[in-house]
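pasting for ref
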Amino acid sequence: MTKHALFTKEQIKLANQVNLIGVAKSQGYILENGGRRAYHAKQSGGLYFFKDSNRYFHFSSNTHGGVIDFVMDFCRMTFKEAVAYLLELALPQMAVSSSMRKRGHLILPDKAPNYRRVMWYLTQVRGITPEIVSLLMHEKKLYQQDKTGNCVFVGYDQEGVARYCSMRSTTPNKPYKQDREYSDKSYPFYLSGHSESKRVYVCESPIDAMSRATIEKLRVQDWKAAHYISLGCLSDQALKRFLQYNVIKEIVFCLDNDANATYSNGSPAPNWGQEAARNLEITYQNSGYTTIIKTPKLKDINEDLIKIRNEKGAFFPQQGIEYEE
């Protein structure tokens, strides 16, 4: 039986004709004018809905599609669940297995016999200190995928169950990035600071979080004086969950500097990362936190780190560095 077998072609076609903008609004997205033919969802990492085609494009994850794809990606449903939801139909009783009554389980990729390629890539290409890479490997938050050699970043729940998994290519100049099926972005990949640490650095990607910690270490600071988390996008779901289980007073937003962002037609686009940072700064200030924005000089924190390394002429200098922010 194929994944489409529960529905006729006509039903699937009808589901894909449901108004995508209406579905987005029903999911709580706040839409604003995004041009003559599009709406932009606020604080979404560049999520656009196109009026004429009933399709979407998400700049942060480089994903796009129709309404079924949107419900699968952003409401975390299977294909069958998405079609049934859109048709407002109940699935036939005989087809409702336990795996369909609730969201499927995340299955982590197979591990490679050793993690040498990931260690090389993160330290020699990305400039992250080996101490931090080794610590994350020891904590099973980072490993090398078998056969592909990809970096695998893992986020866990409070019981130590893997809930989030992001994969990243270790081949320079090949920007492959993908979240594992059934990943839940509300469970962050993070580096723990000291138990008494009250500051958290909030980054977009795992590599940026590791880079921020490395910059603190290069400044001969106690990098564990803070925590470092990755949102995996521009949504603050992961931050909200992190704050539930950690006593934090200060939040430092280190989101990307998308000053040179463009639309697909080449026209200038907003600075998505910094727009999100400003909105989140206000939101969390109003919740009683001290908030700071540290904007990368280049595209992101990792590019800043690599520039620092290259300017110093060595990847692991013994002396502290100066890094104006």
